[in-house]
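User: I'm curious whether this sequence folds into something compact or stays loose and floppy. Could you predict its structure so I can see for myself?
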Amino acid sequence: ETNSLILSLLSMIFVQQLELQGLILESELVVCRSGYSSVMDLFLLKKNAVFVPTPGQTEQEYLAKYLYNRGLFYYTTQKEFNLNKITENRIVFPKMQLFKKLLFHAF
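Assistant: Here's the prediction. I'll summarize afterward.
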């Protein structure tokens, strides 16, 4: 089961922008780098995410920790990344759920 999950993750690495948006919308949990554009896209799409900052990219490291400390997203370092641990724990952040409701009542 783990091997098939990894293979399906690898098959999604190279996709077009519209395909990517569709995949994100269908996903329960997104695992990605914590670049500014990714953070904004995932927030606006109301998605739960695990950020894995690129080592040495201080902006990504800062954003991931900042959002984690506020209960909006989960983060882990690349060195500590463990896909099984992430998928088994079913990570959900109550504050993100609240922000999702507030954000869409405002529009």
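Summary: Helices lie at 2-11, 17-26, 36-44, 58-69, 83-89, 94-106. The chain has a mean pLDDT of 78.
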